[in-house]
Amino acid sequence: MLTLVLIGLLGGLITAVSPCILPVLPVVFLAGGPSSASTPPAAPKDAAPTEAGAVVTAAPEAPSAPRRNRRPYAVVAGLVLSFSFFTLLGVTIISALGLPQDVLRYTGLALLVLIGLGLVFPPVERLLERPFSRIPQRRVNKEGSAFVLGLGLGLLYVPCAGPVLAAITVAGARGEISAGIVALTLAFAVGTAIPLLVFALAGRRVSERVAAFRTRARKLRIAAGCLMIVLAFALAFDVTTALQRALPDYTATVQKRVEDNDTARQKLSGLFDDSNKDLARCEDGVDELRSCGAAPPLAGIAKWLNTPGGAPVDLAALRGKVVLIDFWTYSCINCQRSLPHIEAWDRAYRDKGLAVIGVHSPEFAFEKDAGNVADQARKLGVSYPVALDNDLDTWDNYRNRFWPAKYLVDAQGTVRYFTFGEGRYAQTENLIRDLLRQADPTVQLPPATGQTNDALAADRTPETYLSTTGIRGYTGTPGLVQDKATVYAFPADGVPPGRLSLAGTWTTGYERFTAGPDARLAFTYRAKNANLVLAGEGTVTVLVDGKQTGTLQIHGTPTLYRLTDDATARQAQLELRLTPGLQAFAFTFG
Question: Using an 8 Å Cβ cutoff, are 324 and 385 in contact?
């Protein structure tokens, strides 16, 4: 449980500084200011004149200590409460009451407008605070409107989707509320609250310390109220997403490291059972095609969009075509940034044998509304078939845990590749083209669409684990044999770029490759330097492009050793000759 809480807390902290929460930041900042214009102290009462005609003024009462402004805490508390409660129970409540799926979103928008009107018109603010007037705590009712504002923001809060939020959303959608899910949700909400509270406290400090804020409090309150009303309409008409899409997802890398490592996967996902276990043969983003079992069915689809008469699409009927399945949801900014690449592939390769299917697996209740999805799909330019996976049955079938996620299915109906999150666009397109050529060797493909990303711009060979289940780009004879000493041979025509091969005797396993007699390893890579984690006692002779460049002395526990070091990135043929007993774990490139 402690590990789960830690994952949720870190995931929330990362989410709270991501581009997805930008729309709520101005409101949170302004909400930290005073609840109303400062009231000047009452003038002392004059006493009656004395007989001598002198006037004696009564001693003024000792001024009471200024009340501490707790609005920042009230706003963030309301946001955490409503976000946590309705993320877990919103779907269940809406279904039980028979309400529209987007009722919570419109409730949040209405509250935001009401708070804005309250800042502009004090009688409205007093009306909002009235329900809190009976609370016995000292003057808590003065923070009532701030708390209501937090409740509204929690209904509108749409953070970037990662595995933590996916686990919470799936559990909430199914009503599978366990102690672990509740702990994860609360930890995630607290994690998101911490940076937001810092931001709100900063707003309070500015309002208290800057003279312009104190002397123009009334005007600033009116400006803040107008801003909230404008924000409500911007959210209602989806204006804010243009800014969010334009910003890079600068938290994606750290989010993936925290939420998508082996420990997090085991804690967050209940999908790692024997169902569709062959999908485990594929690994996120590996730059090669693998055989990962038959494509699971598209099950539990509530409705189809962009098909003739709303007719369903049957994967079995698409045999002979290459199929790209994209899991997405329309409010996910990461998905929105990914869609132009998919649309470009659909246009370029639809007539060449590619079929694109968008599986819309909702993150929030309002995304289940077919009208909302159809409207947003049209605005986002999605013209290929879209399946509304409202109960997340297809999400489960594919053991998915990310928005967006792309799966490639070959012409025989076998899953060959998947990638989670944004990026790897050039890599994915190259594999699409490979599958199209496999399906029809005579096909004439157009030029690549040029959909690239920064991670591939450097064209550097990715990290490669020496593992029978996780290795990238192995080639040679025979195929890898698990935990058994086997004699391997390099390909007769050499090792192609990005590929790795073995020769001599090796014992290959889940975590490491162990050298035997005459063990050699060849890797054609592109980078400035190549490094390998090695352990044991012995030597490694390093050859680059057929010339010996050095000999490494290996001693002790697993340690990273530098194999090559060049001034600029280049493609090179690396060959290693290892003494028996040495263990090799993973290549990294710089």
Answer: no
Residue labelled with tokens 């053991």: 399
Q: Which two tokens stand for residue 93?
A: 């409540």
Given a cut of 70, the residues of the chain with pLDDT beneath it are 1, 3-4, 7-8, 16-24, 27, 30-69, 86-105, 108, 125, 128-146, 148-178, 180, 207-218, 235-275, 285, 364-365, 450-459, 469-470
The DSSP string of 257-307 is HHHSSHHHHHHH-S--SSTTGGGGGS-TT-SS-----BPPP--S---EESS
Helix (H) or strand (E) holding 11: helix 2-15
Average pLDDT, the chain: 76
Write 176-181 long-range contacts (CB < 8 A, 24+).
Answer: 177/88, 177/89, 179/1, 180/1, 180/4, 181/88
The full 3-state SS of 217-265, as one line of letters, equals HHHHHHHHHHHHHHHHHHHHCCCHHHHHHHCCCCCHHHHHHHHCCHHHH
pLDDT tens digits, one per residue of 313-362: 999 899 999 999 999 988 777 788 889 899 999 999 999 999 999 999 88
Query: Among candidates 314, 342, 474, which has minimal Cα distance to 408?
Result: 342
CA distance 100 to 103: 5
pLDDT digits (tens, 9 = 90+) for 18-72: 666 666 677 677 665 554 444 444 444 444 444 444 444 444 444 444 456 677 7
Grouping H, G, I as helix, E, B as strand and the rest as coil, residue 572 is strand
Sign of CA dihedral 548, 553, 558, 559: negative
Structure tokens at 283: 């690994």
**Collapsed DSSP state (helix, strand, coil) of residue 402:** coil
Q: How many residues does the chain have?
A: 590
Kindly state the DSSP code that residue 366 receives in the 8-state scheme.
Answer: G
Q: What are phi and psi of 174, to 5 degrees?
A: -95, -5
Any long-range contacts for 215-223 (C-beta under 8 Å, 24+ apart)?
217/33, 217/34, 217/37, 217/38, 218/37, 220/33, 221/33, 221/36, 221/37, 221/119, 221/120, 222/119, 222/120
Give per-residue pLDDT as tens, 254-312. 655 655 555 555 555 554 455 677 787 777 767 788 888 889 999 889 999 999 999 99
Dig out the tokens for 297 from the structure. Answer: 């069915």
As a whole number of angstroms, the distance between CA 340 and CA 362 comes to: 20
Backbone angles phi and psi of 553, in degrees to 5: -95, 120
Phi, psi for residue 295 in degrees, rounded to 5: -65, 125
Q: Give me Rg for the CA atoms of the chain.
A: 30
- Can you list the pairs that 337-344 forms with residues at least 24 positions away whose Cβ atoms lie under 8 Å? 337/245, 337/249, 337/422, 338/404, 338/406, 338/422, 339/380, 339/381, 339/382, 340/381, 340/451, 341/425, 341/429, 341/449, 341/451, 342/384, 342/406, 343/381, 343/382, 343/383, 343/384, 344/449, 344/451
